[in-house]
Amino acid sequence: MRVGPNFVLQAFIVLWGFATIGEGLFVKFTNLECESFNKSVVKFEKCRLKAVARHNVSLNIHIKFFVNPIHDIKLHAQLLHKGNGFRPLLYNDTLDFCQFMKNPKRWMFWKLIFDAFSPYTNMNHTCPVNHDVIVKDLSLTTDMMQLLPFPPNTYLLRFRFFNAIYRGFQTSVQLTVYN
């Protein structure tokens, strides 16, 4: 099996992240963008970051659905890092969100991300989705980075939710890991 240069670079970044994670490292949200592709189906009532302290920014999202219930939800999830624009890092997956909610261990990386979000959201069940989805006062801590150690940089998590009938919506969250 031949290993390409991109894989070697990505593996080096992750291994360097394991080596550099430590006491003086902070992580916080730096930007949030929410976009509805069909405003007659889904609307963002709230999509904002709130500065709580110098190294603490909380995320708040309220997604209002006008069509209920929604079945068969697909998720295109990406993790990108900043380097001459945002570039794909390790993860660029399209998965069945309903299956993910039933058995998240099949997608371990996204399970770790969801486990960080889940105490702050009301989306804690499988499909169908028949209510508004709210993420309230989600703040990142250095403890969360112990499971996902990445070197200091700016990262982008992009989540695009869609199904066969409705075009869906997208959220893009930038977070910065810094000393």
Quick description:
Helices cover about 20% and strands about 45% of the residues.
Write up what this structure looks like.
InterPro entries: DUF1091. This is MD-2-related lipid-recognition domain-containing protein. It is a single chain. With 179 residues, this protein is an alpha+beta fold. The chain has one domain (22-178): Ganglioside M2 Activator Protein, Chain: A. The protein is built from 3 helices and 8 strands; from the N terminus they run H-E-E-E-E-E-H-H-E-E-E. It has helices at 5-20, 97-102, 108-117, and strands spanning 26-36, 42-53, 56-65, 74-82, 86-96, 133-139, 153-162, 169-178. The strands form 2 sheets. Strands 1-8-7-4-5 form a 5-stranded antiparallel sheet. A 3-stranded antiparallel sheet has the order 2-3-6, with no helix packed on it. Residues 15-22 have low confidence and may be disordered.
Topology:
Blueprint: H1 5-20, E1 26-36, E2 42-53, E3 56-65, E4 74-82, E5 86-96, H2 97-102, H3 108-117, E6 133-139, E7 153-162, E8 169-178
Antiparallel strand pairs: 1-8, 2-3, 3-6, 4-5, 4-7, 7-8
